[in-house]
Amino acid sequence: MDLLGPDPIYQQIAAVITARIKDGTYPPNRQIPSEAAICDEFDVSRKTAREAVRALREAGLVRTVRGKGTYVLGPDQD
Length: 78
Fold this sequence. Notes:
Largest sheet: 2 strands, antiparallel
Oligomer: single chain
CATH architecture: Orthogonal Bundle
Strand content: 5-15%
Low-confidence stretches: none
Radius of gyration: 12 Å
Distance between the termini: 29 Å
CATH superfamily: Winged helix-like DNA-binding domain superfamily/Winged helix DNA-binding domain
CATH topology: Arc Repressor Mutant, subunit A
């Protein structure tokens, strides 16, 4: 991550998670790390982690199930 670069941190985190989804690290119908885990891995606030997950949701890559977590969508899901 580039803390001094022009892209917001949450977008950089979303890009890292997107790459992991595309390379199969996080396969369809499986969870991505929780907001707390994202906070720990990237050393960011909960708000930043939440924004990264929101960006992934808006990109159509994941869906959040209340009380369960955030799951990678398959190519035929939305």
